[in-house]
Amino acid sequence: MNLKTEIRPGTYFDSVVLMHLQRSLAALPGVDDAGVVMATPANLELLAEFDLLTDEGKAARPDDMLIVVRAKSEKTAVDALAQVDELLKKRRSSVASEFRPRSLEAAAKQLPEAAFVLISVPGRYAASVADQALDLGRHVFLYSDNVALEDEVKLKHKAGDKGLLVMGPDCGTAIVNGVGLGFANRVRRGDIGLVAAAGTGLQAVTAGIHNLGGGVSQAFGTGGRDLKTDVGGLTALLALDLLARDPETRVIVLVSKPPAAAVAARLLGAARACGKPVVIEFIGYPSPGRQIGNLHFAASLHEAAELAVALSGQPPIQEKEQTPLKGHLRGLFSGGTLAYETLLGLQGVLGPLYSNTPLSADQKLEDVFNSQGHTIIDLGEDDFTQGRLHPMMDNDLRLRRLKQELEDPETALILLDVVLGEGAHPDPASELAPAVAAGRNGRKDVEFAAIVVGTNEDPQGLDNQIEQLQSAGATVFRTTAEAVNHVSRRLAAAPAGIAAPVDIVPFQHPLAAINVGLESFYDNLKTQGAAAVQVDWRPPAGGDEKLMGILARMKSAARG
Amino acid sequence: MTIDIDKANQTAVERMMAARPILKGVARARDVIPGMQPNLLLHAGPPIEWSRMSGPLRGAVIGALILEGLANDEKQAVGMVEAGEVQFDPCHHHQTVGPMAGVTSASMMVYELENVTHGNKAFSNLNEGYGKVLRYGAYSKEVLAKLRWMNEEMGPLLAEAISSGEGIDIRALLSESLHMGDEGHNRNKAGSILYTAKLAPLLAKATKDTDLLSEVLKFLGENALSVLNPVMAACKAMADAAHGVEGSTVVTTMARNGTDFGLRVSGLGEQWFTAPAEVPDGLYFPGYTSADANPDIGDSTITETAGIGAFAMAAAPAIVTFISGTPQDAINATLEMYEITAAEHTAFTIPQLDFRGTPTGIDIRKVVELGIPPRVNTGIAHREAGVGQVGAGLVRPPMKIFEDALVAFAEKYGL
User: Fold this and answer.
1) b/e per residue A335-366 (b: at least 16 CB within 10 A)
2) Which of A86, B27, B229, B259 could form a disulfide with B124 if both were Cys (CB 3.0 to 4.6 A apart)?
3) CB contact under 8 A, A106 and B339
4) Digit-coded pLDDT (tens) for B263-279
5) A328-491: CATH homologous superfamily?
6) In the CATH scheme, what is the code of domain A2-90?
């Protein structure tokens, strides 16, 4: 038996250190057993029981550290004893790891300044994690897909009530306070703020802005369904409002696939009212022209970037707008196509827009002979032309309708078209202009505008017609786009009612975030210098349906 | 039924933290423990019958029957038990807790604590020190002789001494020892010294027998676990104060009998939830391995239940190697427990965490949702009766008891 003993007089170590050393010694190759103790009588007895007590060891005193090794060979035992100091000094090779919380609640306590929670857990769990994040007062970047539409609506309403953003679900990218979340390009900071319901669209525009020498203040993703009717653009509206108030943002870009008409109307209305240039790229969405007031319509993602960079170089808009009119538009058209183009142009900023030839069924006039809200009528339709001449030849019907509109206290702006040319009325302005003048006289609160289509070769004479209408007090345009621009300025949509605006302060500090899910997102945050906590997330109750059900019912019971 | 679980938990945990257990005296178990009978033996953990008892618990039962004079030897003791002449009951059913086997019999001297905030009492036997001891199932002549000395010599002196003072505020003592490197369960070095220092002047006045005084002071002073039993009784008094709050999911009992791990919940009355106890993961004394270890045993998990022990691991960096780690791991251990608890203790704080309160009031909802069972620091008993402690380490209760409790809670409250 190769038993070797070492006594270190007057050396004290905590028993735990001793046990640890003993375990390390016993684990050395060729060592059968080891004992490391303070040499108290009880411990000596213990060693004796395991044949680890030598005569030498018996002589040790209670204040001495006693080390005994039994090994296959004497050399092994001696070598083992020689390693004691090294083993005592040895620290665990793995660096002490920072605590990774399992719950969002603990993460929020660990990094209280984290205003954002990135969520990329499987879709079936994502909504409840997002809900917790909102309960904790954090903005949400929801990368997860397969989140139910009704959950998205619920989350966004809840967020809206609390003044929080829910970016997503299925939000692939955002740039917040200069830090890219999810899939984001590295772009310089600047004064262009973006809101996008299209992930790669946002990447294309932000990259374009960078490559053109511009920079990005904030870029918010909303998730692809945000601008659909069910969600109603809740996130886009909050984000737009935030950018409107953000002093770092001079130009705003909205990017989306074609939104639902009513949602587009709300969003463009809010954009109209925001006081900053807004570039709009609703891919494939019909726009009446290139510009309506502060709204600039781009024809492609790249053009959106170009417009944004160009606008950011210009001095801030000092729109000296007249006080907008209170009331409704009444468009009395003789030409069906002009009416339709005007409807298309205004649908984004004035809604709903009623007509006898509406853009959607829900905007159909209940009674074509009586206007409701904003109304555009095509008087050339069959309802009006039965048994009478077309309004391009006979002004009688239109003059009567104009009088009728003037009797309606809701009327604020009357828009007419005047189409010249062979076959048309020989001098339409001679009948329309007096009616306009009389109307102006009787209703000081009503304005008139007219679109005149024709040439100076026409029998009626273009300049002559314009001159008559202008003298009567109408504002005259040569294109529907100009008329649409004018109308949208005079009848500015009310700014979207934001119940609880997003607090801007967290967007003015270095980003701090909690990441739940894909660890690469956490690594990306750290690489970009953001403060971050990774949540060691697991499915609740290990994914056990029954237990998850109970926990969910407990939570809903708690909310009463 | 509408219940507000969060509010109920807050009530429970506030009661737990407001409880102020004072050590008021030492007395015979039969004179103070409610329902104590001559043929009744109290044991650690949830209820268990003889046939399922593990080695250490059986050994302690035999030893206690001999100590009580009910049996002369092992054979007679076992015969009595098998003939049904001995009753068993968990300590927890009698306002009592005991470390390891926890066997408490009628003639033993016990600590008597009173929670002066709510008026409830708690009891615990006297700590025997290290080596061969009854709580690990040893019942040799020496073991019984030491117990007799404790019950007939030291016990009465302690009784005299403690009753002569104003009582010892164990919560205050723990608050202090947590700042001196103790966590209150596996490490009670500082607490035991504080305890001895408080007792010394009282003991000195209570006897003229300087030999006895010296012996008692030496016994208390050398035993780093002297204060463990009063601490456990104090934790029991705190946990009991939190028990029985309607609608609360806070754990008020965790205890092991060496075979099963048992759990009780504030809002679920006296029902036990049990599952087989596991073998702790830890460090072993010379010559022993995990193959020698008995499954987890003892009522000392009452410390974790009350927000100390493994929950205060960050305060005790000296014993971090029990969880084979670094001081950072000790901090992480405590941080992890914040995730499953309802509150941070108002009396127990941790210097290493900038005096944050210890995680207190285990919430079964959080345990199940996050899949984090509580941590428990523990001594490890040899699986055979009488060998004693073979190591110390970390164990976690089986998840099943928390899941079962959650399901029972949902049934009771119609969720």
Assistant:
1) beebbbbbbbbbbbbbbbbbbbbbbeeebebe
2) B229
3) yes
4) 999 999 999 999 999 99
5) Succinyl-CoA synthetase domains (3.40.50.261)
6) 3.30.1360
